[in-house]
Amino acid sequence: MSQERDNLFSILPVFTMCGIILFYKYNIRPSFEILCLSLITSFIFAIIYHKIIQKIALVMLFLVLGIAASKYRYLSINHHLIKRSLSNINVAGEIVNIYSGLDTSKIVLQNISVDKENRSNFPPKIQFKIDNKYIKTKLQSGDIIDFNCDIFPLPRPVYPNAYNFSEVSRYKSIGGIGIAKSDVVVVKNAKKTGFNMMIENIRIFIDERFAKNIENPDARGVAMALFTGNKGHLSQETLNDIKKAGLSHLLAISGIHISIIALSTFSIARWIMSLSSYMTLHFDIKKISAIIAMIVSFIHLEISGIPISAFRSFIMFSIGLIAILLDKSTCSIRVISATFFCIILHKPEQIFDPSLQMSFMAVLGLIGGMRPISKFIENRYGDGGRLMKLGLYIFAILISSKIATIATIPYTIYHFNQYSNVGLLSNIVAVPLVEFLIIPLGVISILLSGLFLGLDVIVMKILSFMISIFLYIAYTSADVKWSYSIVREMPMVSVFLYTIGFIILFTMRTKIRFIGIFPIICAILLHVIQPKQIIIIGKIEKDVVFLHDGIYYAKEQLSSDFLKNIWQGRVGQSDVMIADKEILNKYFSKDKFENENIVVYFNLPLDGENICKHGKRVYIVNPSPEYKNLRKRCKVNIVKKWQITAQGAFVIYEH
User: Fold this and answer.
1) β-strand 86-99 against 104-114: which pairing, if any?
2) Euclidean distance between CA atoms 652 and 601, whole angstroms
3) Residue 480 phi, psi dihedral angles, 5° rounding
4) What does 68-79 look like in DSSP terms, one character per residue?
5) 3-state SS of 402-438?
6) Cβ(97)–Cβ(107) under 8 Å?
7) Can you give the pTM of this predicted structure?
8) Kind and range of the H or E element at 452?
9) Which of 88, 415, 461, 502 is the most buried (most CB within 10 A)?
10) CA of 108: how far to CAs of 124, 199, 349, 414, 558, in Å?
11) Beta bridge mates, 639
């Protein structure tokens, strides 16, 4: 146990994560006075006492820190939200971000003024979807534009615990969405200067260079996604194929990109300075190179829009570079633990972000899983020839890809209800292609673009060819019939148990790590025995999906393809078809659904039917006021409209 002492301190941020979950999911929200008292008491006990009391105090300290950080963050985001739809209004505002796409562009405006509305009741920012035909002139960050549009409240989730765009946007100070209906007029060109404006305009410049010099639309979209984080130029079909092939992690700006760019910058800067004997003799070129690498990677992070996976990688790499500056060594587990703690303390809501969950777990799996494998390979095959080293490299890619896949499968299933079966094979070719060819060529082309020598055109032609190979791998892998599997919804407690199990398994070094297998087994069992959904009731009356003979059917055409895709994934079915008349007559009569276990009434006044003698579970959706008297006579489950709206849908499970 003494050997694991340092690692035990590394898992303390897990208790901060638990505090955040308690705040957001279980509404544990004590006052600031109680939180301050708890923090002070835990801190004092952690200093004064030893052994078991000290450990308990540290656990309580980190747990309360999670609750306190969540409460502060929640209260600090206090701005107006669009509550009702506004039609045919003129809007003027300053451009903050521009995300161009194939047919439409997304533009975020701030300092918004509107006609016929009180500006004080408007949120700080609104995101608009603008058809490219309405954009007649070049737009840049800082421009003040005017156009006619419709504005809507932020969309709510369509299923319990599904992705909540409304909550995510709220923390970005975006309080509504809009759709343009007229040409965009530039009222005033950008005059503001500053770092943020400079970064935004650099990002726009890079996108324009790619758009001009890469002819293949999909290759152009991949280049933009890799280097500026703009996926708007990729068709949905291409994105789906990349996901099915298990290559979507390469498309997202993440640790791979930041690490390669930072390491390349560090190596190039050090090599250039080593050419000068004066620099080598009078300066520590290693430390200077570390500073340059940190600055370059930070600029790239800003240009990409600071995705959480890239932010994680930047912090980890910066800690390593700071260690070089201070002539200190680093421990990978401590670095990832400190990085995780800093991120969730600064933005606690990110704990529910799929990117953060998969990014950290993949890195933790690679650190903990590859450690014993690397030692074995080095001890046994370290002195092999070039052919042996090439084989070991391919083997390392194969194993590391498998470890990262295993570590992220629970989160992929929980959020997307599918995982790739061919990802292991496709990554063997795609990972080195992206790492050693596509990203370096992209960086070189961007640097040459800034010099205006025309050499970037040649490099971008080569880059386009390499991306075409990447896309060929994705298309070929996705065409395999068994390329991916759809898995029905996973309970949140299973995800939590997976997380605890993987942290113990990958963090500890001694045999104690195998304790982590127990919560993983429990998570699998809970997922397997999870009851099936009998019926799913949406916010719109026609959105109803029900179970018949092991297959899910829709009562009628669902209101949107997005909702249909989410519900299909949650029930573990590739397609939900509309039920025929015979099936509908078996379960539905008037505004009632009934099977052998439950009865569900929709919008019915209580007309005297003897509901209490069904002998089944009874649910009344959006009931009339008389339901209060009914509840006194028998047990019924009341489902109000606001509950369905808040959760996204109401789901009844088998018992």
Assistant:
1) antiparallel
2) 13
3) -65, 135
4) HHHHHHHHH---
5) HHHHHHHHHHHHHHHCEEECCHHHHHHHHHHHHHHHH
6) yes
7) 0.82
8) none
9) 502
10) 10, 16, 21, 30, 30
11) 621
Using CA of residue 354, residue 357, residue 362, residue 365, what is the dihedral sign? negative
d(Cα 493, Cα 591) in Å, to the nearest integer?
35
What average pLDDT score do residues 186-212 get? Answer: 79
CB 388 within 8 A of CB 381: yes
Which residue type does 220 have?
A: R
Task: Provide the CA 46 distance to its chain's centre, in angstroms.
Answer: 35
Cα 533 to Cα 259, 550, 593, 650: the distances in Å are 44, 10, 14, 10
pLDDT at 478 over 90: no
Could you state, in order of their start, the residue ranges of all structural domains in the chain?
2-76, 86-192, 533-653
Neighbours of 596 (CB within 10 A): 5
Residue 451 burial class via C-beta count within 10 angstroms: exposed 0-12, middle 13-18, buried 19 and up: exposed
Backbone angles phi, psi at 484, to 5 degrees: -145, 160
How many Cβ atoms from other residues are within 10 Å of residue 50's Cβ?
9
- Per residue in 359-415, pLDDT tens? 888 888 888 877 777 676 666 666 666 666 666 666 776 677 778 778 888 998 898
Q: What is the DSSP-derived secondary structure letter of residue 506? A: H
Instruction: Tell me how crowded residue 582 is: count the other CB atoms within 10 A of its CB.
Output: 7
- Residue 337 has, within 13 A of its CA and on its CB side, a CA count of 23
CA distances from 420 to 249, 423, 499, 572 (A): 12, 5, 20, 15
d(CA 490, CA 478): 24
Of 4, 2, 116, 133, the C-alpha closest to 515 is 4
Q: Is 93 exposed, middle or buried (0-12, 13-18, 19+ CB in 10 A)?
A: buried
Residue with tokens 């030893």, as numbered in its chain: 50
Pairing mode of beta strands 637-639, 617-621: parallel
Q: What tens digit of pLDDT does each residue of 289-305 get? A: 888 888 888 887 777 77
